[in-house]
Specification:
Blueprint lengths: L1 H5 L7 H6 L5 H16 L10 H17 L2 H14 L14 H11 L5 H13 L21 E3 L1 H17 L2 H18 L10 E3 L12 H18 L5 H13 L12 E2 L12 E2 H16 L9 H13 L20 H5 L7 H17 L2
Antiparallel strand pairs: 1-2, 3-4
Helix pairs in contact: 3-4, 3-15, 4-5, 4-6, 4-15, 6-8, 7-8, 8-9, 8-10, 10-11, 10-12, 12-13, 12-15
């Protein structure tokens, strides 16, 4: 395993051993580079444009932001240079790449990217289909999902809209993104557990299977964290409250018997069929580490949870850089068993989310 080859740091004293995590920046960077190399070697990396590329780009950019590694910058820049001129049908998931394009533009100032952000921002603001109460309907490349809210939408469309709004100085876009968080929190946040449901239908007026699907919870936790950063001093009590509830709920659900990660249906056991899933676990760890770095939580509050989880993510990265135990694309299910049956595959979102977790952890280390 890559983990055994990388974790070489041995503290000199017992006191240091108690305080220092069992990994260092060198290990985290090496694992991230390996995962990125595997990601950009996938055949659909250079030919596709959907949420898998969107999350992959997001992870690669996080590596560049943390380390300044020019190869990561170039991978992102080359992807946009190649793919954007070709065009893409607009839907919630294809919007996801623009969260990274905003950041690329802020570094390069390259004016050729502005028309794309203006076009897609306008579409998400005014033409993306809405549900009752103005929520973004989770329209994808192959289905309309009438009157359905999916927690995935926060990652794929709401965050890009907020970032475009801030960049283009369009406060109405930022206000609309905030509204999407409020609507999704209203219908998807389970106040009894602190977790999020995967979806809601205004037709049947229920949460489908009522599943606390792990990667959906990761989309929520990542985006709640990112939105708070985007809002800055303005903050938002509703978003902060939902994030705090998730942070408090997850440590008790970490699977200590199976690699210190979380299961694909968070509150169902491995014995029931709920397997340990790496991408969601990485999303949680990214959020915990970032919240600690930003000073929103005390650095030691969830330190043990993060340390164990990061070790689990590192152990899930194969020698060839593939992030293992990542569930395939997952539609909203009407039964809990639906989630058990999702296969585990090599994916760009698995690679990207692992890098996100490792790089945010990298930033917390001296």
């Amino acid at each position: 395993m890559l983990l055994s080859r990388l974790l070489a740091f041995v503290p000199a004293t017992a006191a240091a051993m108690a305080a220092a995590p069992p990994y260092n920046r060198t290990a985290l960077d090496a694992a991230s580079k390996s995962a990125i190399k595997s990601l950009v070697s996938m055949s659909s990396w250079s030919t596709g444009w959907d949420w898998d590329q969107g999350v992959g780009l997001y992870g690669i950019w996080k590596h560049y932001e943390a380390t300044g590694d020019n190869s990561s910058f170039t991978a992102v820049q080359n992807w946009f240079t190649t793919r954007l001129p070709g065009g893409q049908r607009k839907h919630v998931n294809s919007m996801s790449v623009f969260a990274t394009l905003v950041d690329l533009y802020k570094v390069t100032g390259d004016a050729k990217w502005l028309p794309y952000m203006e076009e897609w921002g306008y579409w998400a603001m005014y033409n993306l289909t809405r549900t009752e109460e103005g929520g973004m309907q989770h329209v994808t490349s192959d289905a309309q999902h009438p009157q359905q809210l999916w927690v995935d939408t926060l990652m794929m469309a709401a965050i890009p809209l907020a970032k475009i709004g801030l960049l283009l100085k369009k406060p109405e876009y930022v206000a609309e993104a905030k509204k999407q968080f409020y609507v999704h929190i209203k219908y998807l946040h389970d106040t009894k557990t602190g977790l999020f449901f995967h979806g809601w239908t205004f037709i049947d007026r229920d949460n489908f299977a009522g599943a606390h699907w792990a990667r959906g919870n990761a989309w929520a936790m990542i985006t709640l964290t990112e939105m708070l950063e985007l809002l800055g001093a303005e903050g938002d009590a509703t978003i902060q409250s939902a994030l705090s509830a998730q942070q408090k709920a997850l440590p008790a659900l970490q699977d200590h018997a199976n690699g210190e990660l979380w299961r694909t249906v968070l509150d169902h056991s491995v014995a029931e069929g709920s397997y340990v899933e790496t991408s969601a676990s990485a999303g949680f760890l990214f959020s915990y580490a970032k919240a600690a770095r930003k000073g929103w939580i005390k650095s030691d509050t969830y330190a043990a949870t993060v340390e164990k989880g990061v070790k689990g993510v590192l152990a899930s990265i194969a020698p060839n850089g593939e992030v293992k135990n990542v569930s395939a694309g997952t539609g909203v299910g009407d039964t809990i068993e639906h989630y058990y049956g999702i296969s585990k595959v090599k994916t760009m979102w698995g690679q990207g989310m692992a890098v996100m977790a490792l790089m945010e952890t990298w930033r917390t280390l001296a």
